[in-house]
Design goal:
The structure is a single chain. The protein has a single domain, classed as Nucleoside Triphosphate Pyrophosphohydrolase. The chain is an alpha+beta fold. It has 3 helices and 7 strands; from the N terminus they run αβββαββββα. The strands form 2 sheets. Strands 1, 3, 4, 5 and 6 form a 5-stranded mixed β-sheet that branches. It has a two-stranded antiparallel ribbon with strand order 2-7.
């Protein structure tokens, strides 16, 4: 996982020990009610997400992270929740341990950056709720596929 200079500096001081990190994640749902997921090399599926850099607001961070990881320009529309604690601990393949406090936004796509995907993204895929793979972090599906998102199911 590419890391910021800030994290690299902290890692030099603490090694692979646990770091508490403020972060953001995007719930992006298409017109069929499918959620955009990111596949990372050697890691479980995840939402487009990343760390809030020093001096950055959560809204700025989600726009930057989604752009870097997906090549999409997004606008955060609504705060879906803030998640954290032991369930949001993760150990990366290199041994670095983190515990995220995640600000989760519902985002809409407003364009494309014109850049290629970053090195940490192997692929992107929209997935229906009934076909969700296990995610790296345990976001509640009811929040990810909320009431304001299209269901993708035919109306009866």
């Amino acid at each position: 996982m590419p890391s910021s200079l800030y994290i690299e500096e902290l890692r030099r001081l603490v090694g692979t020990r646990l770091l508490l990190l403020p972060s953001v994640a995007a719930s992006i749902v298409n017109e069929h009610g499918e959620l955009l997921l990111q596949e990372k090399s050697g890691e479980p599926w995840s939402l487009p997400a990343g760390m809030i850099e020093p001096g950055e607001t959560p809204e700025q961070a989600i726009v930057r992270e989604v752009g870097e990881e997906t090549g999409l320009v997004v606008q955060p529309r609504r705060l879906l929740g803030v998640f954290g604690g032991r369930e949001f601990r993760y150990r990366y393949p290199n041994g670095d341990e983190v515990e995220y406090t995640v600000v989760l936004f519902r985002c809409v796509i407003t364009g494309r950056t014109g850049r290629a995907l970053d090195d940490e993204t192997a692929s992107l895929r929209y997935v229906a709720r009934r076909r969700m793979p296990p995610l790296a972090l345990p976001y509640p599906h009811d929040v990810l596929f909320g009431a304001d998102a299209p269901t993708g199911e035919p109306e009866r």
